[in-house]
Amino acid sequence: MVQEFCDFVECARFNELEEMKAMYVNPIEAKDNRGNTALHMAAANGHIEIIKYLLELNSTKQFLDAQNDNLNTALHWATLNGHVDVVSRLLKAGASVLIKNDQEKTPFYEAENRGFAEIVSLMEEMVPENEAEEELQKLGI
User: Fold this and answer.
1) CA distance 10 to 36
2) Chain-centre distance of CA 102, in angstroms?
3) What is the pTM of this model?
């Protein structure tokens, strides 16, 4: 079963949607040896069709906000790599922009820090105003 979980995650990494569909794996349970789910891998690599498929299978907060061994969520990875369409899809599904990783960085912080204005705008729409202001103050903005 462990190998099947890793294979599922690798399919997400390499955009192998049809192979994923042939597997009968619970996406929340399938993780690689670093704690990444298929959602992490698809988000990191900008594979929007895989994201859509995974969210059809499971769109719970537990899955959306699952953290890997470095406490990054799929939204962290999509943000770090500037995948606007993936960030948008994850936000619409309810992913949190304020979860901190092991470096105490939120996806919101990463977007602002990297100058991804379009992603920052998307996130500001999803974050309560007082929380967004608090994040911006931490950045010195």
Assistant:
1) 10
2) 15
3) 0.86
What is the per-residue pLDDT across 72-112, written as a single tens digit (0 to 9) for each? Answer: 999 999 999 999 999 999 999 999 998 999 999 999 999 99
- Nearby residues of 59 by Cβ (< 8 Å), 6 or more positions away: 93, 94
For 65, residues 6+ apart whose C-beta sits below 8 A from its C-beta are 73, 75, 95, 96, 99
- Angle at CA of residue 85, ends 83 and 89, nearest 5°: 115
Partners of residue 37 on adjacent β-strands: 31
Q: Which residue has the tokens 């007082």?
A: 130
- Domains defined for the chain, CATH in brackets: 2-139 (1.25.40.20)
Helices (H), 14-140: 17-22, 38-45, 48-57, 61-64, 74-80, 84-93, 107-113, 117-126, 129-139
Q: Give me the mean pLDDT over the 112-130 stretch.
A: 85
Indicate left, alpha or beta for 104 from its phi (over 0: left) and psi (-120 to 50: alpha): left
- Tell me which H or E stretch contains 2: helix 2-13
